[in-house]
Amino acid sequence: MSEREPVLVMRGIGKRFPGVVALDGVDLRLFPGEVHALMGENGAGKSTLIKVLTGAYHHDQGDITLGGEPVAFAGPHQAQQAGISTVYQEINLCPNLSVAENVLIGRAPTRFGRIRWSAMRRRAEELLARLQLSIDVGSDLGAHSIAVQQLVAIARALDVDAKVLVLDEPTSSLDASEVDQLFRVMRGLKDDGIAILFVTHFLDQVYEIADRMTVLRNGRRVGEYRTAELSQLDLVAAMIGKELAALEDIEEAPRREVAALERGTPVVSADGVGRAGAIAPFSLGIHKGEVVGLAGLLGSGRTEIARLLFGADRSDQGQIAVDGTPVTFRGPQSAMRHGIAYCPENRRTDGLVEELTVRENIVLALQAARGWARPVPRGRQDELVGRFVKALDIRPADPELPVRNLSGGNQQKVLLARWLITEPRLMILDEPTRGIDVGAKAEIQRLVVELSDGGMAVLFISAELEEVLRLSHKVAVLRDRRLVTELENTDGLDLDRVMAAIASGGAT
Amino acid sequence: MAVALARRQMERWRGSREPRGSDGMSNLVRHRLFWPVAMLLLLLVGNLAFTPGFFAIELRDGHLFGALIDILRQGAPLMLVALGMTLVIATGGIDLSVGAVVAISGALACQQISQLGDQGAVGGVLVAVALALLLCAGLGLWNGFLVGVVGIQPIIATLILMIAGRGVAQLITGGQIINVNSPPYKAIATGFLLAVPVPVIIAAALVAVVALVTRRSAFGMLLESVGGNAGASRLAGIRSRQLIIIAYVACAVCAGVAGLMVSSTVSSADGNNAGLLIELDAILAVVIGGTSLLGGRFSIAGTVVGALLIKTLDTTIYTIGIPPEVTLLFKAVVVVVLCLVQAPAFRARFARRRPTAEVSA
Ligand SMILES: Nc1ncnc2c1ncn2[C@@H]1O[C@H](COP(=O)(O)OP(=O)(O)OP(=O)(O)O)[C@@H](O)[C@H]1O
Ligand SMILES: [Mg+2]
To answer: Which residue ranges does the record assign to the ABC transporter domain (chain A) (predicted)?
Structure first.
């Protein structure tokens, strides 16, 4: 099998940014009809290698051949025309255009130079149907959740006649069922002889779909392996460059027993709170030291609940109470005054200010709460930022770097740090481990456990049910924008029961 | 394992140090004020070639005189307008009404002074000036309200006052040009304090105040955050409405002070022509100074350099005797070159040529 010629070869690729060597002599080979996983910690250089491949960045060293011919793309458009179709890590679609336009932008079917809108809608619907996504293709893309946007970006990449398909963390906010669907499509493409480059931090996914993988560490290639010949443990060791013992004990971070919780008056409670078109009226209480997980499929209303509790959207009925006292949130800042923090799922549009530095992004919420006239003293900023850069292992550990220059996973950590320093009483975490590597993910899970032990109430949202189950004391199950049931996370609760509750709408 | 860790640490250390320390020169070039400052110096030196005494500054009757001083003095109004514009642009907005505000400010001040029994009374002039600036603050509040509260696009919201403001100025002056004969008022533009022209002192003081307030408080950072990502800023709990209103008020007040200077220079108020097209020069100064029209990061130092650059360019056009019919064209060409030189994409094109050339050589 390895006798076949690779369709794409990158050899000795070097790329440096001011102050950082992102890639140093990296080799990569992609074979037709194979799924190739690109693995590495946050900041290892995966996205950079992909951007070099597609001409989004110009490399300083090395060469690239596609189908035996040397190539050097001036930009992603050229790469696409040469048969390399890419979904970037940070979704780069136009939120104010319709879904159909986003899927087919630049390739809209035309007649006599005019766009045929109906044909365009049909084509877009077909492409999305391949991923089993049925949404109104005429709606604005920005109105959809990040998971839907991710699927739209993938659909867009699938529409091209490609030799190579590149997917940079396409599954970071997808549920199991969408991942299955994506994998089904990927297997089909594989059988057509397309080479697929796939980045993810989910090891299970790698072992499910990838035939071969390349591991990067600190901008260097550690090696190329056949998936079948490398155990998960060896893979992780290759990625982080040390033995894995440390990781094991984090996996089993001891969550406090449900029985040990004192459930008096909830820190924050919602009584019949709802918003037309977003979420049906729900009631939910989150107590001191309690982690409440939200479980549900894509579009089931998880983020909507978070936004209502944070005052990011206004509820049109029901009553929110803090410590039993009814409150009305007129916006995020009034929720923040009551000690509520919300770490949103879409770090790019809702979270970070990309051109500000790491330090500025971290102190932003704290500063906003104090108002502009009372700046956080610089010494205190440096101290806080230094502490969290270290605690979360944000790399490079230079607080004065623009956040834009950080890798995706490190940006996510910056966002977490922003809310951690506000020391909230209720922390709402919407996909906090999105795009974060195995080691850091375990670290963040441990952090959640620690925080709740310290008395913080946590609302934890994740597409990854295992994670929800591991951390939560109580799991609220959502389906079709309705909170259908609450399950105490005692011994009897396992993944199957949660899934069953999701599937049946709570009638277990 | 310890070895691997140590090596990783080394790599990280090397990775973050090596290129940075490599040469100070490229750091200097990379500084975002490098190109505007370089262009400014180039223009000044160019002037020296045409006018030998260009750099000469002399002390006459305890007053500083010279071509450079003239540039500073004549550039003061533009610098002030651009200063306020910087704040507005940082929010991701734009203020087209500054020219009209310049006219209104001068008009109200002159109208008030012309009503005084004794036009030389300092108290009366101060009241007139205060009234004019108060009105400007009100106009800024109006702009800020339309943009921050009603949510109208800045370019449209300020277009309203850009058009209507000229009418208001006409109304105040009664459609005439109001001439005043008031030594205290005249001093705003032509006086000297400790040998330095008053407008230069006023401009420097306002620049210093704005720079201090934005950078010593958190105002600048929050403004940049709102301009950089309004949605994320809201979710971080920033009250952007308040910041936006303050920016527009500050902009209008700066334009108001500039308006006083403009009308004081000629001791009269012309509702039609005062501050005409100054909004464009101001926007240009801000952009040359490295502040993006998309909002976000702003640089007050950059704006100051940008304003000086534009004023120097105007002066150059006179001193090297460019025929009047091509002055606008000349200015346009210089501006285009300037913007190109500053555009990272354009520079990268040339930077990229180099390594390939080396390879083929
Ligand atoms: N535009 C840039 N300017 C400066 N440094 C950059 C830039 N882009 C990436 N880097 C740096 O290059 C390194 C590699 O980043 P890259 O985004 O490739 O990581 P990654 O492997 O994709 O990580 P993640 O899993 O977090 O997405 C990081 O140290 C990052 O800080
Ligand atoms: Mg990445």
So the answer is: 8-243, 262-505
